[in-house]
Design a protein that fits this description.
CATH architecture of the largest domain: 3-Layer(aba) Sandwich
Largest sheet: 7 strands, mixed
Helix content: 10-25%
Oligomer: single chain
Number of domains: 3
Bound molecules: S-adenosylmethionine
Distance between the termini: 46 Å
CATH topology of the largest domain: Rossmann fold
Length: about 350
């Protein structure tokens, strides 16, 4: 069992790297120490707050030698709120960190030596981009969870959210009695199913996928299709489209106004993907957009058996993307890897990898 204790030890540390999730990494006698809100090459003074056998965690006390990339955060809650991680880093450098983390994951976890990285697609809006947020209310406090905690922090305004979302937050806060619970506040009253949070980058993602798919294809399998965001944009290029998602509401939304060539199936990917039989493997494209946990063994096996000519993997987690592509490497060769910054100021990374069957 690992022992854990709190200490007041304050040390000076040189930040070497930024880990997944956004914490700076330093070393003390070879042991990794993770310190939030730091930037590589900075020298900081930090308090060790948790010491484990293999690593330690520290809180920033002061920056002794500052990075040229350090900027003043725009949000008064930054550092306390659990939402944003990178407001202290200028936007160009946030993009550089995310690009590097994708490449490193594919090299370290995926064991790919040469990763065909493309430039990262930036968000035009670095603040004010979120079209929805979920806030929590408890005992009169309305806001987000504190960093590393289940306690709430009272939030009046969220600067990464759009004005309409902040107006909805003000309206909620002005109500005389807000019941305890979760409230999703939206910029528009669109469909209640999975929809992309940063519309401009979502459109760039869609354009990228449209570009990656050649014309005159036989079959598109849009796995984890939600309400058919990709399928609907690719209609012109395919004779037939099959979308699969286990969210029945999303599938119902996809079926509304569907053309005769679209089929949407509400079911578990573990079962549904393996039951598809291909007529023309060479003109079949498979798009997979799984949740952060990535693909199960059953889905990876089904993909290997289907062996579509092109596999487009849309991922919100470079680590599981790298693991899955490593497992599929006997069958597919990666042609391009494009990171996208869907969530500026946070450590979230979106990636599109395109691969062809060998
Ligand atoms: C990242 S979202 C992708 C949504 C969609 N591609 C879009 O852009 O709107 C992941 C989707 O996977 C679905 N999902 C997660 N696990 C699943 C499973 N085992 N079988 C089927 N669908 C699953 C969720 O319902 C969700 O819609």
């Amino acid at each position: 069992m690992q022992r854990e204790h709190t200490s007041l030890r304050i040390v000076d540390l040189k930040i070497e790297d930024i880990a997944f999730g956004g914490k700076g990494v330093a070393r003390e006698n070879g042991k990794a120490i993770f310190i939030p809100f730091t930037i590589e090459d900075e020298t900081v003074s930090a308090e060790i707050v948790r010491e484990k056998k293999k690593f330690a965690e520290a809180e920033l006390v002061g920056v002794k030698e500052s990075s040229p990339h350090r900027v003043t955060p725009e949000c008064p809650y930054f550092g306390r709120c659990g939402g944003c991680t990178y407001q202290h880093i200028n936007y160009e450098h946030q993009l550089a960190i995310k690009w590097r983390q994708v490449r490193d994951a594919l090299q370290r976890i995926g064991k790919f030596r040469d990763v065909p990285m493309r430039p990262i697609i930036a968000s035009l809006e670095q603040y004010g981009y979120r079209n929805r947020i979920t806030v929590h209310a408890q005992d009169g406090v309305i806001g987000f969870f504190r960093r590393d905690s289940h306690r709430l922090i009272d939030i009046e305004r969220c600067p990464i959210s759009r004005d309409e979302v902040n107006r909805a937050l003000t309206e909620l806060r002005e109500q005389p009695h807000v019941r305890d619970g979760h409230y999703t506040l939206r910029a528009s009253s669109g469909a209640r199913v999975f929809s992309q949070t940063n519309e401009a980058v979502a459109n760039a993602l869609c354009d990228l996928i449209v570009d990656l798919v050649p014309a005159n294809q036989k079959l598109l399998i849009d796995a984890y299709c939600g309400a058919g965001f990709f399928a609907k944009a690719l209609l012109d290029k395919f004779e037939r489209i099959i979308g699969i998602d286990w969210d029945k509401f999303a599938i119902d939304a996809a079926k509304q106004e569907a053309t005769a060539k679209e089929t949407y199936i509400a079911g578990d990917m573990d079962l549904e993907l393996a039951s598809i039989e291909l007529e023309e493997r060479e003109r079949t494209i498979l798009i997979i957009d799984p949740p952060a946990v990535g693909l199960s063994l059953a889905v990876r096996n089904a993909i290997g058996d289907l062996a579509p000519a092109t596999l487009i993997y849309v991922s919100c987690n470079p680590a599981t993307l790298a693991r899955d592509l490593k497992e599929l490497r006997g069958k597919f060769t990666i042609n391009s890897v494009t990171p996208l910054d869907m969530f500026p100021q946070t450590a979230e990374i979106e990636v599109v990898a395109s691969a062809s069957c060998q």
